[in-house]
Structures are given as structure tokens and as C-alpha cells.
Design a protein that fits this description.
CATH topology: TIM Barrel
Number of strands: 8
Number of helices: 12
CATH architecture: Alpha-Beta Barrel
Distance between the termini: 18 Å
Oligomer: single chain
CATH class: Alpha Beta
Bound molecules: phosphoenolpyruvate
Strand order of the largest sheet: 1-2-3-4-5-6-7-8
CATH superfamily: Aldolase class I
Number of domains: 1
Strand content: 15-25%
Shape: globular
Structural class: alpha/beta
Order of helices and strands: EHEHEHEHHEHHHEHHEHEH
Largest sheet: 8 strands, parallel, barrel
Length: 256
């Protein structure tokens, strides 16, 4: 079976103006010149998507991602952006189920499932985030939480669509805290995610799905995390805002 291609995604959250985006891309492109064999995704705020789309053109090296969308067809949903609107800008990936959306905006597994289904129907590839809180880990419930979130988010999602999705394991206690999961903790969780995927689909399908780690990934810890057998890349928040540090993380994905 061919190796899973590593995928490194930047989640800029509510950061970066259009001008910041232009500056970032100029520096980042120089820093990753000649890098191949790893998929790079940048998910800027909505306001930067048109300009980034224009600048990236038909780049095969760097793909455009969105941080969110609303699953309904165009209509009376003030403040929301549809999947079709993202496709018009050549957005390829969309982050779904990020813990900030779950915690701050009250997104449930049922809503996340609707978003996954709508993304797949529009040929947007989901980056589906799952992960436990500190309280859940301390109570020894992290594996149950991951199972519940995966089962909920992937309900009725057919095999051909899940194969193109990316799962991001993001322990909530590691996001933006500077405290990353150890490579062993992350590997253990990723192996569990793959086991649940094998139960929901088949072992062959589970082996093909890429599972990223997210939570305080930095140039210093990226290589050791990604050297683990079930860690197929990283979803990066804070360290993706600086072009050189994000480029270092991309390069870390190339190390054996
Ligand atoms: C994230 O928001 O997805 C994330 C992983 O953030 P950070 O890298 O800042 O922990």
C-alpha cells in the first residue's frame, strides 16, 4: 500500500489581514521552494481567501483551505458562507469540528455531521477535528470521547468520501497552550482513531486515511511528532502565522 502523503495545514484563525497574507505568502514560498512530497494547506480567514486564491493560482504545492462554512444551500443565513461560495474560490479543504467552534460557538456532533456531508457533496475535503478536553483525559475518557465524536461526525458518510477526508486529532488541552501531547500520547490517540475508523469502515480504508496531530506544534517538536507511525501531518495554529516557522514545520514532515 502506498505511504500516506503527509499533510501540513495552517489554521490562521481570526488573524492576518489581506496585506499580512500577501507578505506571508511571499516569504513562505521562498522558504519552501523545491519542497515536494508533502501537501501544504493554508486556511486563512474568509476575508483573505479571494486574494490567496488569486496568488496561489493552480499551485499543486500549496492548497487553499477554509476554517468554516455553513452546510445549508444558499439562502437566509445572515453572516454565513456556503460550500459553493468556497468552491468558487477554488478552496479544497475545510476545517470542521474545531474545538473552538465546538466550545465557543456550540457546534454539536450532529451539526458537524451535517457539515461533513455537505462538504463532501460539494467536493470540499473535510479536515475533521476531534479531541478530548483536559477533564476528559484526567477522567480516563479520551478514547470514548474520540469514538463518540468520530461516530457522530461520520454518520452516513460513505467510504469513498471518508477516504478523501483528513482527521485532525487535537487534544483541547494542547491547543494554543504551548503544551503539546508527547509523541507517545499522540501516537496512542492516533492509533485509536484509526481503530475506530477500521470499525466504522474497514481496516483497508482506515489505513489510507490521513490523521494529523494538532496542538502546540512548533518547529522544535514537529519532527518527533510526525515520526510516529500513525501521525500523518500537523494542523498548526500559532506557529503557522510566521512564514519561516511554518516552513520549518513543513520541512520537518520530510524527515524519515
Ligand atoms: C489549532 O487551532 O488547530 C491549533 C492546533 O492551534 P495551536 O497550534 O496554536 O495549538
Amino acid at each position: 500500500m502506498p505511504a500516506r502523503k503527509k499533510i501540513i495545514a495552517a489554521n490562521w484563525k481570526m488573524n492576518m489581514t489581506v496585506a499580512d497574507t500577501e507578505t506571508f505568502l511571499a516569504t513562505f514560498r521562498r522558504a519552501v521552494e523545491g519542497v515536494s512530497g508533502v501537501e501544504i494547506v493554508i486556511a486563512p480567514p474568509f476575508t483573505s481567501l479571494p486574494r490567496l486564491s488569486e496568488l496561489l493560482g493552480s499551485s499543486q504545492q500549496i492548497r487553499l483551505g477554509a476554517q468554516n462554512f455553513y452546510h445549508e444551500k444558499p439562502g437566509a443565513f445572515t453572516g454565513e458562507v456556503s460550500a459553493l461560495m468556497l468552491r468558487e474560490l477554488f478552496v479544497r479543504y475545510v476545517i470542521i469540528g474545531h474545538s473552538e467552534r465546538r466550545q465557543i460557538f456550540g457546534e454539536t456532533d450532529a451539526l458537524i455531521n451535517k457539515k461533513v456531508l455537505a462538504a463532501c457533496a460539494t467536493e470540499l475535503l473535510p479536515i475533521l477535528c476531534v479531541g478530548e478536553t483536559l477533564a476528559e483525559r484526567e477522567a480516563g475518557k479520551e478514547k470514548d470521547v474520540l469514538r463518540t465524536q468520530l461516530e457522530g461526525a461520520l454518520r452516513s458518510v460513505p467510504e469513498e468520501d471518508v477516504l478523501d477526508a483528513v482527521i485532525a486529532y487535537e487534544p483541547v488541552w494542547a491547543i494554543g497552550t504551548g503544551v503539546n501531547a508527547t509523541p507517545e500520547q499522540a501516537q496512542d490517540a492516533h492509533a485509536h482513531v484509526r481503530l475506530v475508523l477500521a470499525e466504522l469502515y474497514t481496516e483497508a480504508v482506515a489505513k489510507k486515511i490521513r490523521i494529523q496531530y494538532g496542538g502546540s506544534v512548533k518547529p522544535e517538536n514537529a519532527a518527533s511528532l510526525m515520526s510516529q507511525p500513525d501521525i500523518d501531518g500537523a494542523l498548526v495554529g500559532g506557529a503557522s502565522l510566521e512564514a519561516r516557522s511554518f516552513a520549518q514545520i513543513v520541512r520537518a514532515a520530510l524527515r524519515p
